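TA notes, week 10

Several of you asked for a full example with nothing omitted. So below is the full record: structure tokens for the whole chain, then the designed sequence directly under it. When grading your own attempts, check the secondary structure regions first.
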């Protein structure tokens, strides 16, 4: 940027060529207004950029496929709520009970039938909160959360680790982390 004398004691900014194009109407609009407009536009563009795209803590936000079992797998959507991360089951690979469950269950939508609370046993599995309460600890680790296993109706302490290949190691445990089980979740689709 150069300056030229606009009067005996005032100076006026002269934009370089690219800035002249943006301020094509510089003769009818004072240059200071043009400059203010350019800076305001740049500020809005930076402010409107999603922080999630830059925040490593949000690397687990999205949809994940749980590790397949004999009963199939679930798709879990993890979202951020404040400083914590929560996830709910949004789909099942096998949403109804197979014939091996008996005539009374065969073909019915899977429900939380193993929940220790009798009044919650008819809740559909799809839509069920599966993980909650995780906080980012740095180093691609989220801790302090809980995980619910609808197959046995139990809730465990849990932690999550993001691997270099983009998968999640989700470890559920009782008491100490050494007494637990780790499953690997694969990314399905990222949410913006």
């Amino acid at each position: 940027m150069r300056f030229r004398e606009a009067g005996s004691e005032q100076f006026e900014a002269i934009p370089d060529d690219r800035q002249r194009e943006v301020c094509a109407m510089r003769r009818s609009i004072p240059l200071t207004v043009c400059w203010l407009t350019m800076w305001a536009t740049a500020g809005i563009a930076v402010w409107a950029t999603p922080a999630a795209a830059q925040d490593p803590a949000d690397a687990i936000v999205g949809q994940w496929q749980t590790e397949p079992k004999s009963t199939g797998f679930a798709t879990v959507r993890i979202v951020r709520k404040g400083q914590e991360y929560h996830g709910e089951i949004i789909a099942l690979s096998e949403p109804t009970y197979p014939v091996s469950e008996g005539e009374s269950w065969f073909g019915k939508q899977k429900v939380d039938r193993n929940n220790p609370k009798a009044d919650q046993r008819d809740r559909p599995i799809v839509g069920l909160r599966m993980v909650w309460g995780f906080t980012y600890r740095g180093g691609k680790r989220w801790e302090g959360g809980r995980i619910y296993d609808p197959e046995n109706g139990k809730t465990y302490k849990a932690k999550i680790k993001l691997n270099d290949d983009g998968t999640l190691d989700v470890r559920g445990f009782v008491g100490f982390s050494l007494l637990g089980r780790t499953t690997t979740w694969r990314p399905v689709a990222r949410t913006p």
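Residues 12 and 171 are 63 Å apart (CA to CA). Use that as a sanity check on your answer.
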